[in-house]
Amino acid sequence: MAAEHPSVSGVAGRYATALFELARDEKSVDAVKADLDNFDALLNESADLKRLVRSPVFSAESQLRALSAVLDKAGISGTSAKFLKVLTGNRRLFAVADVIRAYRALVANFKGEATAEVTVAEQLNDRNLDALKAALKSVTGKDVALNVKVDPSIIGGLVVKVGSRMVDSSLRTKLNSIKHAMKEAG
């Protein structure tokens, strides 16, 4: 399966593929994805959890104890919890963000969806998100899952990447183009 999806490779790809195949066999693909999304959100919210995941200073045992407490508190159990504990036991917890990203790609491929990386200057409301999904569906012919990142430095507009295609309609890029054009003219 990993070879069929170009964005899934390396250590993260192998772990994500193994998890995906297990979840598919157990018919729990969506439940595992929800748990991983939950864990990813926790990771993005907590500097301490990020440090626990990334730092080689912690022993596997201390990582496992701390991770178990986090998983219990977050309500993550079953296949997802066992998988995260296997990553920890194999000293691969540092790759969890890449594994989650690869798992999402495998799920999207399995469901015939495309995933779009969208960067916006400020959070979009539901109406705008739905309009963006509809526009991307008309272009790609697939349902599109959005990974939205807020980056105020783009000033306005948005940057959309679907597969190898990217559209940058950010105000920052437009201003830079005008700046370069004025330098050439002056």
Descriptive account of the structure:
- By secondary structure, the protein is of the alpha+beta class.
- The protein contains eight helices and four strands, in the order ααααααβαβββα.
- The longest helix has 17 residues, at 29-45.
Largest sheet: 4 strands, mixed
Span from first to last CA? 55 Å
**Low-confidence region ranges:** 1-6
Summarize the amount of helix as a percent range. 55-70%
Short structural description:
The chain has 186 residues and is α+β, with helices and mostly antiparallel strands.
Structural features:
186 residues; alpha+beta; four-stranded mixed beta sheet; 61% helix
Summarize the helices and strands and which ones pair or pack.
Elements: H1 10-25, H2 29-45, H3 47-54, H4 60-74, H5 78-89, H6 96-111, E1 113-120, H7 126-140, E2 143-150, E3 158-162, E4 165-168, H8 171-185
Parallel strand pairs: 1-2
Antiparallel strand pairs: 1-3, 3-4
Helix pairs in contact: 1-5, 1-6, 2-6, 4-5
